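Dear H.,

Thanks for agreeing to be a second pair of eyes. The structure we're designing against is below in token form, covering all 388 positions.
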């Protein structure tokens, strides 16, 4: 296939404004899940956290693939002579963006003697927490959420070389292979009777989301008209939302019919289809945002608050579990002790959980803001020295 337009061979990597708003939505879903899950009525107890993470995976797949494919297109011939510089630029830029606050967080928690960090510091340092979770079939307390960052880093290990070596005509089949292979792998693990943790946190079982992101980048760069045709109507997004709802309903129904077994055990909806449905939802949400929503969604995604929170979303995600998590935070945690003192002075704060949620949110935003302006933003400026 040939590009739909000549200009598409030298695509612009301009900032896509509404994607910051999508980042805000994704991180908001995770925070809501981790802070309110056991307080919501059963009918509202949806897998919002996993949906938010999957949206991040699709978004990451799109952004990284777009950068890598466009960077490869700009290399002079013969391209193979420039492989070293191509990889060097990618990994330096990724390192500057991701490593500083990640390793600083681990260092601080290790010094503070945080038990799961002390116990698994080697796994965490190697971005292998997802492998630890899969191997031992257990979560990791305050560092649970770092499994998704491990998945992304592991994707970064092979994606640059893969896209450099792939001829353009093989990009779309590769994206489809990533999607289909990931779904089949999850299904195979379920049939084999392996713990659901493996299918949930392993990098290969998450590749349907990244594959859809790659497919979207390929369309955006080389087949812009097809991209517009696919994402301009709201049909795909509406259908994907309905599909996700049906899969969640199927998972609930399956679990209700087998109340004595684990929710995920042999539950094909939860074990296999949920991430695929969430990936398609993220696929159409992101595609629509790239073109630009109109009306209320435009106002939400381009609102200065959404834009700012999307900009600092990495910090929000990284730090939020250390502020509070409904599943593992002890009553002796400093954030909860401070809350009790505050509520003692202002008893009205204990009349609604909304006040406590706002308290956790302000703490997390405050910490992420300090991190952004003192660490992330200054270091990010160094990326300008390593342009594609």
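And this is the sequence the design step returned. I haven't edited it by hand at all.
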């Amino acid at each position: 296939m040939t590009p739909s337009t000549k200009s598409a061979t030298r695509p612009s990597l301009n900032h896509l404004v509404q994607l910051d708003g999508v980042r805000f939505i994704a991180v908001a879903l995770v925070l809501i899940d981790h802070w309110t899950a056991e307080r919501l009525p059963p009918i509202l107890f949806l897998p919002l956290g996993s949906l938010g993470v999957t949206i991040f995976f699709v978004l990451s797949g799109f952004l990284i693939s777009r950068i890598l494919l466009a960077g490869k297109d700009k290399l002079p011939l013969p391209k193979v002579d420039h492989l070293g510089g191509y990889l060097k630029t990618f990994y330096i830029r990724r390192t500057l963006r991701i490593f500083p606050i990640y390793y600083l967080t681990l260092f601080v928690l290790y010094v503070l003697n945080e038990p799961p960090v002390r116990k698994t510091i080697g796994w965490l340092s190697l971005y292998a927490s997802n492998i630890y979770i899969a191997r031992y079939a257990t979560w990791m307390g305050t560092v649970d959420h770092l499994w998704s960052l491990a998945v992304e880093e592991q994707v970064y290990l092979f994606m640059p070389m893969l896209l450099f070596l792939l001829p353009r005509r093989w990009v779309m089949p590769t994206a489809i292979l990533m999607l289909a292979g990931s779904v089949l792998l999850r299904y195979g693990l379920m049939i084999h009777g392996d713990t659901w943790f493996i299918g949930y946190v392993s990098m290969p079982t998450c590749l349907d989301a990244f594959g859809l992101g790659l497919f979207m980048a390929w369309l955006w760069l080389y087949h812009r008209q097809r991209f517009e045709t696919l994402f301009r109507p709201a049909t795909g997004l509406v259908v994907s939302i309905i599909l996700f709802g049906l899969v969640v309903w199927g998972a609930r129904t399956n679990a209700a019919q087998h109340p004595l077994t684990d929710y995920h055990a042999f539950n094909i909806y939860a074990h296999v289809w949920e991430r695929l449905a969430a990936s398609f939802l993220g696929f159409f949400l992101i595609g629509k945002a790239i073109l630009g929503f109109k009306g209320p969604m435009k106002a939400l995604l381009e609102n200065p608050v959404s834009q700012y929170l999307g900009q600092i979303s990495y910090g929000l995600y990284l730090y939020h579990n250390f502020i509070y998590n409904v599943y593992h935070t002890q009553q002796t945690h400093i954030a909860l002790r401070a809350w009790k003192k505050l509520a003692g002075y202002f008893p009205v704060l204990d009349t609604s959980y909304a006040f406590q949620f706002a308290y956790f949110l302000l703490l997390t935003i405050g910490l992420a803001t300090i991190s952004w302006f003192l660490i992330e933003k200054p270091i990010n400026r160094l990326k300008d020295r390593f342009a594609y």
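Two observations from my side: The chain has 17 helices and no strands. The longest helix spans residues 83-111.

Warmly,
E.
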